[in-house]
């Protein structure tokens, strides 16, 4: 009996330590992965839709490619278009039927406010609230805009993608998600232990996927110039 009690106390202590590590170390890190403190505090388009979110995450990544090579990959995201450049195997385990694009498709390059973004073929799509070509896409809205299936658990939420030009061949991609979800202990535990970390894992992979594709595209455009320079004695013309 004494041995069982000791084992239970050790197990409880281990669980408590793991939860504390997640709450005070891992969670603060993943909620602002890649972002500076200034970027976390910076107002972004779409913030006004959910001015007082119950949960928020701001992620950022530097892409060694011009904005013109990043935007086409971003504008064609969606279940029925270019996918999300993330872990499609995991997405397809829940029936998303995602196929990540490896090329820019001209037919998918038109996106306007009022369009919708599909996450799953059988789930309500999310409305596109704002499109500023070459700069911003904001998806989401208030509960009445998100459809009955989503609005049961969320009063409002936005997913914003913002591109910033750092130089002629460098782009900063910021992604911010804001939720105003319903309260309650079970909802909080689900959001804290399942929704937030799973969203981070998938979004981080998506951002890395966009970076990889944009940088590969930029390299294709630069290489011929380098080759021409090499064959003309150091002169491009």
Provide a descriptive summary of the structure in words:
The chain has 237 residues and is an alpha+beta fold. The chain has a single domain, classed as Alpha-D-Glucose-1,6-Bisphosphate, Chain A, domain 4 (2-Layer Sandwich), CATH 3.30.530.20. It is built from seven helices and six strands; from the N terminus they run H-H-E-H-H-E-E-E-H-H-E-E-H. It has helices spanning 2-31, 37-41, 67-75, 88-93, 143-146, 148-151, 185-231; strands spanning 55-63, 116-117, 126-132, 136-142, 154-167, 170-181. A six-stranded antiparallel β-sheet has the order 1-6-5-4-3-2. A hairpin with a 3-residue loop joins strand 3 (126-132) and strand 4 (136-142). The longest helix has 47 residues, at 185-231. It is globular.
Summarize the helices and strands and which ones pair or pack:
Layout: H1 2-31, H2 37-41, E1 55-63, H3 67-75, H4 88-93, E2 116-117, E3 126-132, E4 136-142, H5 143-146, H6 148-151, E5 154-167, E6 170-181, H7 185-231
Features:
disordered C terminus; 6 strands; Alpha-D-Glucose-1,6-Bisphosphate, Chain A, domain 4; alpha+beta; 237 residues
Biggest β-sheet: count, sense, barrel? Answer: 6 strands, antiparallel
- CATH homologous superfamily caption: START domain
Overall helicity: 40-55%
Which architecture would the CATH scheme give at its second level? 2-Layer Sandwich
| Through-space gap between termini | 86 Å
**Overall morphology:** globular
Overall CATH class: Alpha Beta
Tell me the series of helices and strands, N- to C-terminal.
Answer: HHEHHEEEHHEEH
> What is the count of helical runs?
7
Unreliable residue stretches: 225-237
